[in-house]
Specification:
The structure is a single chain. The protein is mainly alpha-helical. The protein has a domain at about 65-205: Orthogonal Bundle (Tetracycline Repressor, domain 2). About 70% of the residues lie in helices and about 0% in strands. It is elongated and about 55 Å long.
């Protein structure tokens, strides 16, 4: 009986510690979104984020070493939440062209909805900082796009080409155009998504007015 009564008590602190870690990490990310949104990425400092969390400086550095790492974590979170959307689009079948268009529209709308976070509220003209390295979540999104392209090629629903380059090109164009879209007011997801899709699928020749001189 004494052992049965003792074991749950011994496990409780560990569980509480894990909960505290999750809460602290989420508090830092939530604070970072607010601070980046109000001050902009360049002007914001780690001290600003710490003040917003109410945590001790030492606690912050237990999780992140810099604001760059905090941004990477925010980007990670977005990629993790967007991956299931891509997977659902793949399940619909259709041509690779249809998948690319629908994926871009979904991505641009997803990013526009993030306007409540710092990404859409930062000062106009401020560029998104580059995240050095590739996180598992970002790699998962890339893999999902590449796999969709490969399956389309195998099943005869897309052009035979280098799926690795195709995925990289599609994601690169989408990210850059989306970044510019978020800098404009009002944000026009339809126009931006249409431009990106045409650029990816047809290159410069596919853009409106391309045949005019």
């Amino acid at each position: 009986m004494s052992q049965v009564a003792y074991l749950p008590t011994a496990k409780m602190p560990g569980g509480k510690r894990e909960q505290t870690k999750v809460q602290n990490r989420q508090s830092i990310l939530d604070a970072a979104r607010e601070v980046f949104g109000e001050l902009g990425y360049e002007a914001a400092t780690v001290r600003d984020i710490i003040r917003r969390t109410g945590l001790a400086a030492g606690t912050f550095y237990n999780y992140y070493r810099s604001k760059e790492e905090v941004f990477a974590a925010l980007a990670d979170d977005g990629a993790r939440r967007f991956a299931p959307i891509l997977k659902d689009l793949r399940g619909k079948g259709g041509t690779i062209e249809l998948f690319v268009r629908e994926a871009i529209v979904a991505y641009f709308e997803f990013m526009a909805d993030e306007h409540v976070s710092w990404m859409a509220r930062r000062p106009a003209g401020e560029m998104q900082p580059h995240v050095h390295g590739e996180t598992p979540e970002m790699a998962a999104v890339f893999a999902e796009v590449k796999d969709a392209i490969e399956h389309a090629i195998i099943e005869g629903r897309g052009p035979v080409s280098d799926s690795d380059y195709m995925a990289a090109a599609a994601i690169g164009v989408a990210r850059e155009v989306c970044e510019r879209m978020l800098m404009r007011r009002p944000i026009d997801t339809a126009a931006a998504a249409d431009f990106a899709a045409e650029m990816i699928l047809h290159g410069l020749k596919g853009l409106p007015g391309a045949g005019q001189h």
